[in-house]
Design brief:
Helices cover 29% and strands 24% of the residues. By secondary structure, it is of the alpha+beta class. Bound molecules: 2-amino-4-trifluoromethylsulfanyl-butyric acid and cobalt (II) ion (2 copies). The site of one cobalt (II) ion (CO) has 5 residues, from loops.
Length: 288
């Protein structure tokens, strides 16, 4: 038990009574009521949030650079090179490089690839492709994570709609985030919109806490029920990153590389990702 005049456990340097005392009392009550409450180690203080914002500046800058350069005829290895050079020249480290054996500085997932596609000289972007570029950056030990979809040349109406609906799923998922709300609020918002458009939501992969590590608690499922799951509190940094399939939600990991996740039925899949901060007032998008 921290006493009122001791320093707060969040390492803000403030006295407990001026920092997380009221917060802890609120959480204690929610826990008594049977809710799942976040562990202390995922609640970020001001300094950590500032660190994550600086990391996100590189992450966002790189996605902007990709959007300026991505084009038909380019191979995805070239995008990877842009990522490595931009990140390192800005003092950062690409978080995916050598992460659990992942060989590249970002993920590029084309058409029926759901996520974790590996950039390669052999993957040449062609007219009509839709591609997700997913970037994770480390700066001074702080992590940020975001992804965007790109449409190459003239894409089919069907592909465009999937990309746009998935973007709206992300917007609605983020909008559902409220301090003292619930993780299930995000999943419910995403799932409703995806399914009302005839699409399905991938369940095996999802969002996650982020900031001091690439993947922290909690797992953010993009399907769920309002008012359920972990309580969302100020200082939590999580990603929302819906993976939406045009066909069935079934997926598999390609055993040729052990990474690339694909739709089982070969249908198109899209994804957009933000890193967000739960604030006292609502939500702040940190990386987009
Ligand atoms: N950026 C991905 C995410 O959103 C993580 C990629 S890990 C990798 O969670 F190893 F596949 F690169
Ligand atoms: Co990501
Ligand atoms: Co992520």
């Amino acid at each position: 038990m921290t006493s009122r005049n001791e320093l707060c456990w969040c390492k803000s340097g403030l006295k407990y009574k001026k920092c997380h005392l009221e917060f802890d009392e609120k959480l204690k009550k929610l826990k008594r009521e049977g809710h799942i409450v976040p562990p202390r180690n995922i609640i970020k203080n001001k300094e950590q949030i500032e660190g994550i914002r600086k990391s996100a500046k590189i992450n966002n800058g790189l996605l902007d650079l990709v959007s300026k350069n991505i084009r038909q005829g380019m191979n995805t290895e070239e995008i990877d090179k842009l990522a490595y050079d931009y990140t390192v020249s800005n003092g950062g480290i690409p978080a995916t490089l050598n992460y659990e054996g992942f060989p590249k500085s970002l993920c590029t997932s084309v058409n029926d690839e759901v996520c974790h596609g590996i950039p390669s000289e052999d993957v040449i972007l062609k007219n009509g492709d839709i591609v997700n570029v997913d970037v994770t950056t480390i700066l001074n030990g702080y992590y940020s994570d975001a992804s965007r979809m790109f449409m190459i040349g003239e894409v089919s109406e069907e592909a465009r709609k999937l990309v746009e609906v998935t973007r709206e799923c992300l917007r609605r998922g983020v909008e559902a985030v409220k301090p003292w709300g619930f993780l299930g609020d995000i999943g419910a918002a995403v799932q409703e919109y995806a399914e009302s458009n005839g699409y399905s939501v991938v369940r095996e992969f999802g969002g996650h806490g982020v900031g001091l590590d690439i993947h922290e608690e909690p797992f953010v499922c993009h399907a769920g029920e309002r008012g359920t799951g972990m309580v969302l509190v100020p200082g939590m940094v999580i990603t929302v990153e819906p993976m939406i399939n045009a066909g069935s939600d079934e997926i598999f990991i390609d055993d040729r590389d052990g990474w690339t996740v694909r739709t089982a039925d070969g249908s198109l899949s899209a994804q957009w990702e933000h890193t967000i901060l739960v604030t006292e007032e609502g939500v702040e998008i940190i990386s987009a």
